[in-house]
Amino acid sequence: MIKNLLKLIFIANIFLFTIVEARDNCSPEFNLAKPSSIAQSTDSDSDKKSTFIYFDQSLSMQGYTIDQPGQENLYVNIIDDLQQIAENIGSKTYYHSFGKSIIPLKENKISQVIKPIFYKCKGPAVNCNNQESKIHLPFKISKANPNGTYIIVTDLFLSSKQLVGGTLNQLTKPLKSILKKGKSVGIIGVMSSFNGTIYDIPSRAGGTISYTDAKKRPFYIIVIGDQKEINQVKKNLVEQHFNVTGDQYKYTLITSSPILQYLNQNKLITENNISSIVTKAEIFKFEYLNETLPVYKFDIKKTKKSIKFKINRPDIIVDNSNGVSAFRIDNSLWSSKEVRCSKIKEDDWKKDKRVDISGEPKLNKQELNIAMFSELPLNKIFWGRRYFYLMEIYAEKPGNLSEETFKEWSIRDSEAEEFTAGNPVEFKTLNLIKIIKILNSVANNEFQPTLIASLALNFNLLK
């Protein structure tokens, strides 16, 4: 009887201790950083949106409409389907051509876009719409009505003089406004057959030359709008027109917010992010403090090895965006000589002055890796104490992956004549990388350091 009574008392004490532990957060007093505002448009009411399509009517586009023997004409195939793709995005679609100016197109005239006649002009050249390619005009209109989705079909063949001074400002100013409103710019490059003349190729003497022997040449579909609509256009094109190897197209997303989300918001930080501790720790518990901060609570022996923390790349980086080239960690460390949470008082916690605690975050194609306590190894701090380590991870600087993506399709002004003299079958795009750098520069200027995750380690360091 007495034995059973003692057993009940023992169980009750354990239950009571558990309640105390649950009630006592066993943590110092601190303030969490406020989550960054991630400027991504979330308007999902696509039924009220309109789609605006702009076809580049410059004369160099004509070669896409004429079949080249032995080559696949993706331009004709894609333009045929673009009308249906656009109708899946919003309630109404409006069509235009652009060159020197923007000209509305009636729906019964859309079929002409894939015919050579669309790019010809019967009157004097000065009055024709096929002599220039003022791509800034659709960008300017998208700034005035940011709720729409804008699709621009063009060869992006722009001279250097179109990418400087006032002309450049006409492109960057509306782009800045677009990105500030949470919109993005998707660029889909498509390698298609080509049978025509490429005009306005810069020569070293200062004039321009033409080229007629190209059999393949990329064109571009630029989509301005919400990431959801951009991804839908890209998904439809990939499913309907591109092979499984993906060598017929290239894609990038220009955005001022390459960070997808704040991981704490939907409790996406779990035990799996620090799986090495789960197996090595003598005692382990994981919980969210105040439903906000993930806390890993454990006892661990003093060791030279760092603690590995990882986040899956798709959880934090917007797919196909420029990504992030630099991260920052804000570190805070407290210690208490009293190791039992039930015994710790508020003034027992002492904040450490050291802030170089964990290694620099490393992002690869699969995940973000952080070596926690690699700068301040566990064997360099006192054992027999409880530690509370708060780590806040920020995306500090955007990357430039889109430049690498399109690098092989680009040719500079200074290289254009020599490249042309080599009689290339596959012709490159003039100043493509310069254009993408300009777009990236505007996006990067709008980028703000973004809090990715906050988390804490609450551990008893054993000998």
Folded structure, characterized:
The chain has a 7-stranded mixed β-sheet, sandwiched between helices. The N terminus is likely disordered. The chain is 25% helix and 29% strand. It is an alpha+beta fold and 463 residues long. The protein starts with a helix and ends with a strand.
SSE blueprint and pairings:
Elements: H1 2-23, E1 50-56, H2 74-87, E2 92-98, E3 102-105, H3 136-144, E4 149-154, H4 165-180, E5 184-193, E6 198-202, E7 208-211, E8 216-225, H5 227-241, E9 249-254, H6 275-280, E10 283-289, E11 293-301, E12 307-312, H7 313-316, E13 324-336, E14 350-351, E15 362-363, E16 367-372, E17 385-398, H8 401-406, E18 410-411, H9 413-421, E19 429-430, H10 432-446, E20 450-462
Parallel strand pairs: 1-2, 1-4, 11-20, 18-19
Antiparallel strand pairs: 2-3, 4-8, 5-8, 5-9, 6-7, 10-11, 12-16, 13-14, 13-17, 15-16, 17-20
Helix pairs in contact: 2-5, 3-4, 4-10
